[in-house]
Amino acid sequence: MPMKNPTVPVRTSSRLHDVRYEIRGELAQRARELEAAGRAIIKVNIGNPGVFGFTVSEHVRETIERNLARAETYCHQKGILPAREAIVAQQREHGITNSHVDRIFVGNGVSELIDLALRALLDNGDEVLLPSPDYPLWSAATVLNGGKPIYYTCPAERAHVPDPAEIEAAITQRTRAIVIVNPNNPTGAVYPRAVLEAIVDIAARHRLVILSDEIYDEIVYDGAEFLPLARLAGDIPCLTFDGLSKVQRACGYRVGWLSATGAPVLLGEIERALDLLASLRLCANVPGQYAIVPSLTGPDTISPLTAPGGRLHASRQAVIEACAASRFLELVAPRGALYAFPSVRADVLPGFDDEKFALDLLEAEGVLIVPGYGFNYPKRNHFRTTLLPLAAEMREVFARIERVLESTATKQAPRRQVA
């Protein structure tokens, strides 16, 4: 039977209209087109360690190989028991005394668990307080689950640290949760204890759930102190998200976990909702779950990379020095995570457009970055780069950035009047 109106496209969900993920968006597509045409592109848009030569520890990989035959069936919807026990043991070592194996949910990466948590929490029109700039998955998952993102700002002028008073002022009767990303993506901020304690106090007084994204928990530099939010939250409902993709450099394993902590009487309904949603997707990737125990009980492989002399520390230092030497750039030195979030000085380049700059940089110099607007940030003078390339390559990236900024400044300069 012929289709009516065969030229009319299939309609998609209206919820997608407010969803963006520029990290893998149009600029990344343009980069692939340039590569197909023979151009060499330096991609510093994604925090994907394996692309830059980082590897998973051999003892972790060997554990997965030894257990492949045991990983051919569905497991419990919350995850295999030894993995959940190892997560609880690590959390208790970190001072989270109310962690419990029955409140651990293993997922196909933190991304899946963020979606499940927001699906469990939100009715249409419910509000979630999110940092701006944010990791855009949080905004997208909020919208796709019927919620409304409400942003609190984390500007460079405050070292990208939130203001608890601003968070509290944004609370309405529809607010359900406060999201924090600490250490932060994209800014590299690590939040002070006083700020975290204030956020816990706000959540307690307004009966809100705290959603704490801590995937970069062990990636800190120069003595920065990371504090797990759940340690401070006590009986306040807190969902903590963590996994193997960054600290263990195991992005492709897609292994993350959610830990629910707080007073049991307050968590019963959310735990049942999470259990139902976890059951509907049957279980998480089973082979990858066998990486959890050796990752959490084996040697520390991230500190040598972030300490002075380590590869990540050296690349971070190269970015700091490049920004300090630039006449265009300013940078709040990242204290954690795998990214830098430089800004372009408004007094030197007024009217700077981060999206246009990112495209110009890609076309002219073959460098792929993410413009700041992709992180739901209202100021249009930032961009994000990962710290994963070697220090020498980071210096080359910023030399190319400087050339494009110089070119932009030259085009903006007023032309002299000809007599």
Any chance you could write out the topology, listing elements then pairs?
Blueprint: H1 26-36, E1 42-43, H2 58-66, H3 81-93, E2 104-107, H4 109-121, E3 127-132, H5 136-144, E4 148-153, H6 164-169, E5 175-181, H7 193-206, E6 209-213, H8 229-233, E7 238-243, E8 256-261, H9 264-280, H10 286-289, H11 292-297, H12 303-306, H13 311-325, E9 329-330, E10 339-340, E11 343-344, H14 354-365, E12 367-368, E13 370-371, E14 383-386, H15 391-412
Parallel strand pairs: 1-12, 3-4, 3-5, 5-6, 6-7
Antiparallel strand pairs: 2-8, 7-8, 9-11, 10-14, 13-14
Helix pairs in contact: 1-14, 4-5, 4-9, 13-15, 14-15
Structure report:
- There is one protein chain.
- By secondary structure, the chain is α/β, with parallel strands linked by helices.
- It has two domains: 15-54 and 304-410, Aspartate Aminotransferase, domain 1, CATH 3.90.1150; 59-297, 3-Layer(aba) Sandwich (Aspartate Aminotransferase, domain 2), CATH 3.40.640.10.
- The chain is built from 15 helices and 14 strands.
- It has helices at 26-36, 58-66, 81-93, 109-121, 136-144, 164-169, 193-206, 229-233, 264-280, 286-289, 292-297, 303-306, 311-325, 354-365, 391-412; strands at 42-43, 104-107, 127-132, 148-153, 175-181, 209-213, 238-243, 256-261, 329-330, 339-340, 343-344, 367-368, 370-371, 383-386.
- The protein has a seven-stranded mixed beta sheet with strand order 2-8-7-6-5-3-4. The protein has a three-stranded antiparallel beta sheet with strand order 10-14-13.
- α8 (229-233) links the parallel β6 and β7.
- The longest helix is centred in the C-terminal third of the chain and has 22 residues, at 391-412.
- It is globular and about 65 Å long.
- 44% of the residues are buried.
